[in-house]
Amino acid sequence: MNVGILATGWIAEKAAETLSAMTDERIFAAAAGSRNIEKAKEFAEKFGIKKAYGSYEELAADDTLDLIYIASPHSHHYEHAKLCLEKGRNVLIEKAFTVNAKQARELVKIARAQKLLLAEAIWTRYMPSRFALEKMLESEIIGEPYMLTANLGYNNIHMERMYKPELAGGALLDLGVYVINFALMTFGTEIDSIESSVQKHESGTDLREKIVIHFKQLTADGKKKYAELYAALDEFTDRKAFIRAENGYIEVENINNCEWIRAFIDGANTVHFDVPKQITGYEYQFRACQKAILAGETECPEMPHEEIIRVMEIMDSLRENWGLKYPMED
Hints:
six-stranded parallel β-sheet
């Protein structure tokens, strides 16, 4: 599978690093595109990529590419994905998928009409740890879970794209998307209500947020399931999650790139899962795309279109409550 990389920032570098180690799987970084040809050439040379393009239009027009990975800022995901889809390219978009659910629906409509793959690169949906946690929960080793807490925070506020409204900055699209996905992967998608509070950056974007999701599903003894979530752009948090049930709890170390999962019953560690050795963690989403493309699918089962749109709808509703709108939404 020949992959084109659209944009050349640090997350694009991480993808290129991953792809350079996947040649045994016949997944290659075959082209890089930037709005600046010198940047594209420098990026391509650094990672041994054969082709460099000085415009995204040229990259999208390369019909030797099986997939284009979009690594531009959130604000431009819709525009760049639409360009690639209309040129007949399969697309993998870095999270957050788009700025809002409306954009997400439009891209899904185009991809399905063109019979092209459209996927979101939210790596936690594709990792082995996700499926290990599912099996642990299904076994009911701690009983039936009824609540979880999850947090994700980094001190990244010095980075321009993190806080600028014109780049769809803020904690929600960059970090909150992970804690929301974690909650949905654990408790499902039937939501009763959502409560939230936000602290804003001087630019008007969200700096920190607390989100409580109440799910419709009840436990066998009538407890309502809920998730307490936290995301922050200006502080390092422990990045942990705890899932609680009547017999014990499960602890997840680093929800952003899981390191281990432990189950405790009556305070004693009874089950421990260490994640397999990985390249960077990005490899799983590229493998999923390769499998889906070979099968002629338009979505990856690990993160289907319905789920992509649902997450965007949740984030839209949060921003509406916070009075936060991005300039490109006008």
